[in-house]
Amino acid sequence: MRVVLAYSGGLDTSVILAWLIEEKGAEVICYTADVGQGEESEVARQKALATGAVEAVVEDLREEFVRDAVFPALRASAVYEWYYLLGTSLARPIITRGLMRTVKATGADAIAHGATGKGNDQVRFELSAFALDPDIRIIAPWREWKLRGRADLVSYAAARGIPVPVTAEKPYSIDANLLHISYEGGVLEDPWASPPPQMFRLTTDPEEAPDESEIVTVAFEAGNPVAIDGRKLSPVELLTEANRLAGRNGVGRVDIVENRFVGIKSRGVYETPGGTLLHHAHRAVESITLDREVAHLRDELVPRYAEMVYNGFWFSPERRALQAFMDEVQKRVNGEARLRLYKGNVIVEGRRSEKYDLYDQATATFEEDDVYDQADAAGFIRLNALRLRRLGEERLGEGE
């Protein structure tokens, strides 16, 4: 049996590689997708071969990740439970697409992943895999082996001389990509415990960030960010630059208890510096380019869209249909936002659009104008008050 393992080189997948060889007698091809974790990809490849993989594939999916997942979610203003910008959720379908390409290229019989039976990632990987190949066989060791927790995995790896990244100095798990880094487990399982200060990688501690604020301008075309401070950049370059600017100003840390799809509440700590900057800039440009009712309708649908992505339904017909609506709305979102970054804060200071600006200063002004007759408001209010007045008459008639 040939198995393509979604391999990161972390504790779980390092043990799974050895377990598949020992317990299943499998030939294992390790697949590592580079979605922005950088040097860790090559380290993972070398480690996979040293641990017994017959082949180790590393694929650069950074452009695909940003273009096909991050930017569509940004166009939809997607935020799960009002805080989480979906960094892990967006990476999984892109990784799975690469994984399935490797299955086809190598003639493999199955795929395997390191997601636990308690988490969201098992759902995301497997729903995406079945959408791409309805007949694929999936091996999920956490749902069948006798190892019961991380301590068992550490012992298993130690007995076989497999190096693992979980140590007393880093008693938590880490998942990194170009959009964010997530931290969970270990000391973070106590929702009252503060995250270890040395844990964060992408962001400066806001208290230690520069004392002078920094001004950043982001330009958008059809809802996609295309330039920072006047410099046109590719999707990967743009997100990398946004991460650098926001990260050094302490922007993008989030500590939440979220509701997993499987029904468990889970504490997650995230760093999403560039994504946070782009989200605020995007909303600012939308504020002057979108019609009120269109914007409000879109915002009603944002939680549903974010829930679809979070729960693993990226390749579902409902997500695709909703994406088409979001993208239709975004055709008007062209312009620039100017933001001030200061010690963890993103402050919108200006927004403009040459082509689709719906803001009319002549109408909005508090000074004298010849555009808006304020006396018209009386009729507007009386019409909207009709039902309220009728209800009031009834209550008074009943002696309230």
In words, what does this structure look like?
The structure is a single chain. With 400 residues, the chain is α/β, with parallel strands linked by helices. The protein folds into 3 domains: 2-61 and 87-170, Rossmann fold (3-Layer(aba) Sandwich); 181-352, Argininosuccinate synthetase, chain A, domain 2, CATH 3.90.1260; 371-397, no CATH class. The chain has 12 helices and 14 strands. It has helices at residues 11-24, 40-51, 62-75, 87-106, 121-132, 150-159, 235-248, 273-289, 292-311, 317-329, 361-364, 376-397, and strands at residues 2-6, 27-34, 55-60, 110-112, 137-139, 173-176, 181-184, 214-221, 224-228, 231-232, 253-259, 265-271, 335-342, 345-352. It has a 5-stranded parallel sheet with strand order 3-2-1-4-5, sandwiched between helices. A hairpin with a 5-residue loop joins strand 11 and strand 12 (265-271). Helix 3 (62-75) crosses helix 4 (87-106), helix 4 (87-106) crosses helix 5 and helix 9 runs antiparallel to helix 10 (317-329). The protein is elongated. 40% of the residues are buried. The model has no long low-confidence stretch (mean pLDDT 94).
CATH class of the largest domain: Alpha Beta
What characteristic shape results from the CA principal axes?
elongated
Largest sheet: 5 strands, parallel
List low-confidence stretches. Answer: none
Residue share in β-strands: 15-25%
> Mean pLDDT, as a whole number?
94
The largest beta-sheet arranges its strands as 3-2-1-4-5
List the secondary-structure elements in sequence, H or E. Answer: EHEHEHHEHEHEEEEEHEEHHHEEHH
Distance between the termini: 78 Å
Question: What's the number of structural domains?
Answer: 3
